C-alpha cells in the first residue's frame, strides 16, 4: 500500500531530521525514497521537490561526482521529463551521465542506461540524429555486456527501428 509506505517514510524522515539534522546523507536518502513513493503515487511536483531536497543535501555532504548525486540527477531528469520539461530533463541526465562515465567507465550498464534515456529524450525533442547516436552507444554496451538476445538489447533495437521509420517517412514526403 503506497499510502502506508508514504506514512512510514514520512515518519522515518521526521526521526532522521530530529536526530541527525537537515544536512545528513540519511536525511537525503529519506527524501529520495519519498520522491520514489510520490512518483508511484503520480505526484510529479512532489517528486521533483523531494529529489531537489535530496540533491541539495548530497551536494553539501558528498563529493559532487558521487554516484548518489548522479542518482539524484537521474531522478530529477525523470521528474522534469514527466512534467514535460524536456530541456531541463536533458540537463539533469547529462550531469548523471558525466558522473557515471567518470566513476563507472564507458562500458558499464548504468552508462548504457543513461545513453538510452538520453536517446529517448532527444527523440522526444525531435533531435533524431542525436537520439540515434545515444541509442547506438547504449546498444554497443548492452550487446557487449548482455548479449544479442537480452530484452534490454531488444528495447534499443525497437527505438532504432522507430527512428528509421520516421526517417523513411520524412524522405518519402520530400
Give a structural overview.
The structure is a single chain. The chain has helices at 2-20, 25-41, 44-61, 67-82, 86-104, 109-125, 128-146, 151-173. With 174 residues, the chain is an all-alpha fold. It is elongated.
User: Which structural class do the helices and strands define?
Assistant: mainly alpha
Quaternary organisation of the protein chains? single chain
Pick out the low-confidence regions.
none
Using the CA coordinates, give the radius of gyration: 18 Å
Instruction: Report the sheet-strand fraction.
Output: under 5%
- In helices, the fraction of residues equals over 70%
- What is the global morphology? elongated
Order of helices and strands: HHHHHHHH
Q: Report the sheet with the most strands, covering strand number, pairing sense and barrel closure.
A: none
Q: How many beta-strand runs?
A: 0
Distance between the termini: 53 Å
Counting DSSP H or I runs of 4 or more residues, the number of helices is 8
Mean pLDDT: 96
Topology:
Elements: H1 2-20, H2 25-41, H3 44-61, H4 67-82, H5 86-104, H6 109-125, H7 128-146, H8 151-173
Question: What's the quick description here?
Answer:
This protein is mostly helical and 174 residues long. Helices cover 85% and strands 0% of the residues.
